[in-house]
Amino acid sequence: MEVERTFVMLKPSCIQRGFIGEVISRFEKKGLKIIQLKVEKLSREKAEKLYEVHRGKPFYENLINTVAGKTVVLMILEGRKAISVVRKLVGATDPAEAEAGTIRGDLAIELTDNLIHAADSPESYQREHRIFFSEDELETY
Fold first, then answer.
1. What is the per-residue pLDDT across 44-67, written as a single tens digit (0 to 9) for each?
2. What is the DSSP letter of 4?
3. Distance in angstroms (rounded) separating the CA atoms of residues 60 and 67
4. Which residues lie across from 21 on neighbouring strands?
5. Catalytic-residue membership of 129
6. Rounded distance, CA 127 to CA 119, Å?
7. Measured CA angle at 46 (ends 41, 52), to 5 deg
8. What pLDDT digit, counting tens, does each position of 77-131 carry?
9. Is the whole-model pTM more than 0.85?
10. How many CB atoms lie under 10 A from the CB of residue 77?
11. Strand 116-118 relative to strand 33-41: parallel, antiparallel, unpaired?
12. 3-40+73-138 has CATH 1.20.1250.20 classification
């Protein structure tokens, strides 16, 4: 079985609109295991590290301003092919293009603040989870 881990961040709009439980429930119903979960006010520094791959793009500053200084939920999920499974559950980046049945397709409205961020590759997971979690926080229970 190809068990892997992935990083997910519920953006401020997800929290403000009261969707934390629904989103987490979708992951758990799919069989993904929550390895770690924390709530924190995201610093600008961490937001910039998370989204550094987009630095220089026209939407970068708006993306940073959408999450920096606001409360987010950070998670490490584990399961068979967790990265691709989570990406399918989350849906297309643009909620207007996300299929019904996906988190963004059902719940999101805005493009930049589209409720959720999810690692898109093993390399992204490795880089992103280290911004928020220490290795000792990733021990399985």
1. 999 999 999 999 999 999 999 999
2. E
3. 11
4. none
5. no
6. 9
7. 140
8. 999 999 999 999 999 999 999 999 999 999 999 988 899 999 999 999 999 999 9
9. yes
10. 26
11. unpaired
12. no
